[in-house]
Amino acid sequence: MGFSGKNMSTYTEDTIVAPATAQGRAGIGVVRVSGPLCQAIATAIAGDLPPHRKAVYRSFRDKENQLIDKGLLLYFEKPHSFTGEDVLEFHLHGSPVLLDLMVQAVLAQGARLARPGEFSERAFHHQKIDLAQAEAIADLIAAGSVAAARSALKSLEGEFSKRIHALVEKVIYLRMYVEAAIDFPDEEIDFMKDRQVSEKLNHITSDLNAIFEEAKKGVLLQEGFTLALAGKPNAGKSSLLNYLSGKDSAIVTPIPGTTRDILQEYIQIDGVPLHVVDTAGLRESDDIVEQEGIRRALLALDKAQHILWLIDGEKESLNDVRAYLKSVPLEERYHDRVTLLYNKIDVSGQSEKIDRQEGYTILYVSIKTGQGLPLLHQHLRSLLNVGECEANFIARRRHLEALKTAKIYLSKAKEALQQKQAGELLAEDLKAVQHSLNEITGEFSADDLLGKIFSEFCIGK
Predict the structure, then answer these.
(1) Looking at the structure, do residues 280 and 309 belong to the same domain, yes or no?
(2) 232 and 340 housed in the same domain
(3) pLDDT per residue over 230-289, tens digit each?
(4) Do 119 and 257 reside in the same domain of the chain?
(5) What angle do CA 440, 163, 177 make, to 5 degrees?
(6) Residue 302 sits in which domain range?
(7) Whole-structure pTM over 0.85, yes or no?
(8) Structure confidence by residue, pLDDT tens digits, 134-188
(9) Coil, helix or strand for 334?
């Protein structure tokens, strides 16, 4: 794993310390130390330095020789540690007071408090992990489902990175071939007519598309899917939110305009995180508070990946809703991501079904009686592609953007080959593909990107 393109200016040789366990009381708490002062700190606080990777039972004392606690001490000698530096772990009782006393004792020996994500950042700089693996650590900690945790673990073990590295190797091999033909014209290699170049470009394209599709699933597991509930007041949005969440999250009354602000619930559908957003009823209103709720509702609809537009089957018709959508600046922005949910079929006399009219999918349900709600679950699964959503790795939005950029340059490379443009243009496009892919693993990463990524980590990681 090479990191020659990486700027190392953010890395320092300080010894750092932080609690590695979550805040609050627990049976065990861990304080982690990394850096060149580890051996001296172990001797000062625990009396001696234990053997590499062997847990020993010790008394921990501060600079005034006051007993802090008794517990286990582990020492990991560089480079055989998570960070690649000397690392100490003090395992003591999980009282926040004791953990703070231990941190203060380490600080008194010359260490400093670690920044968020600094342990992982040091592992990255010492080439113990690449950037995709570092991000997988944070994703594993934040995983909201079993599927997300398993996918993050696969990324941490290097599955995503291996796929990227294998693709980069293919791009490099083709670059070498093209650039050799440019540099040694006497060899009379007309790569513009060489089927091998075209075939290799096609193989690279196929591999890149496969990784891109897998990454989209990984992003879905990492970020979740946002579903907004919209419609006029009293259409049943709050009742649907309560049904999906399995609890009384929203107040349900026959009074229009009860929901004044955005309500959100987090649920899972077959392991996929689903963020359900209940918005204020959309209508003309003189109430200043309700107007603000409607404004926020429209913002939420802009951000949602899909919208369930509820229809009050007791008072509205499909034609009413279609006319309403055309009367407000919604249809162009939302048409391709709206499902119409025709509610209250127990009153209107309609039967439960899924229909398709004028580009809209329409579900006929009764939230009150439960009629048609299995059809709704089926529809949500189809939106999420749940059956195909088990990802081989976790991914983030920035990974998708890097892959999209690589796809654009790869298309330009194929166009250059087909139009028999100068070989230098083909070589430059392949270089841009390689650069975009390397941004994923961190072989070419700006300091501001690294700072943003690691700042989102929790303290102690």
Answers:
(1) yes
(2) yes
(3) 877 778 888 888 888 775 544 333 434 444 445 777 777 777 788 888 776 555 555 565
(4) no
(5) 90
(6) 224-388
(7) no
(8) 999 888 888 877 888 888 899 999 999 999 999 999 999 888 888 877 766 555 4
(9) helix
Query: Does one domain contain both 347 and 377?
Result: yes
Instruction: Give the integer Cα–Cα distance in Å for 349 and 100.
Output: 65
Encoding tokens for residue 367?
């939230």
The CATH number of residue 80's host domain is 3.30.1360.120
Helix (H, G, I), strand (E, B) or coil at 59: strand
Does 142 map to a domain?
no
Pair 151, 394: CB distance under 8 Å: yes
Alpha-carbon distance 320 to 318, whole Å? 5
How many domains, the chain? 3
Angle, helices 131-142/447-455, rounded to nearest 10 degrees? 20
For residue 308, what are the CA distances in angstroms to 17, 61, 209, 248, 395? Answer: 48, 60, 30, 19, 27
Q: Are residues 380 and 401 in the same domain?
A: no
For residues 10 and 447, is the Cβ–Cβ distance under 8 A?
yes
Phi, psi values for residue 410, rounded to 5°? -70, -40
Beta carbons within 8 Å of 396's beta carbon, 6+ residues apart: 135, 139, 218, 219, 222, 223
**Which phi and psi angles does 231 have, rounded to 5°?**
140, 180
Alpha-carbon torsion 158, 164, 166, 169, what sign? negative
> Strand, helix or coil at 108?
coil
- What average pLDDT is seen over the chain? 82
Per-range mean pLDDT, top range of 38-47, 411-420, 440-449: 38-47
Is the omega angle on the peptide bond into residue 79 within 30 degrees of 0, that is, cis?
A: yes
Can you tell me the distance from the alpha carbon of 367 to that of 370, in angstroms, rounded to the nearest whole number?
5
Q: Find how far residue 198's CA is from the centre of its chain.
A: 35
Residue 459 token pair:
């303290």
Element (H, E) at 407: helix 397-418
